[in-house]
Specification:
Oligomer: single chain
Radius of gyration: 15 Å
Distance between the termini: 37 Å
Shape: globular
InterPro entries: AhpD-like, CMD-like
Helix content: over 70%
Largest sheet: none
Protein name: Carboxymuconolactone decarboxylase family protein
């Protein structure tokens, strides 16, 4: 789980204001990750898929950054977005792909306009 210094501003502030709550939240995340046989790259890709399904741009960015740090190929991250097409629809998958490319294509900040 991320350290509170690595969290986005608002989440980091909550983590610092309520450290016991954040520790419990972090422990829950770790326990969920250890609850079964899924681990490593597969675990990260599942978390990315869940973030895409929840339409959470921030979580997609976070899971992509962590995946790249863990050595997951950027092509695998992009494939997760493409796999969303039949389940979540083309518009949601395209949005997710742009969020992934914000990180994999080394763009910083909000998604760049597409032309």
């Amino acid at each position: 789980m991320q350290q509170d210094e690595e969290l986005p501003a608002a989440a980091g502030q909550v983590a610092r204001s309520y450290p016991e709550l954040y520790r419990a939240y972090a422990a829950l995340g770790e326990a969920c990750a250890k609850a079964g046989p899924v681990e490593g790259e597969a675990l990260r890709l599942v978390k990315l898929a869940l973030a895409i399904g929840a339409a959470s741009e921030g979580r997609v960015h976070s899971h992509c950054r962590r995946a790249l740090e863990e050595g997951v190929p950027k092509e695998a991250l992009k494939q997760v977005a493409l796999l969303a097409i039949p389940t979540l629809g083309f518009p949601r998958a395209v949005a997710a792909l742009t969020w992934i490319e914000d990180i994999t294509d080394d763009r910083r900040g909000p998604a760049q306009p597409r032309g």
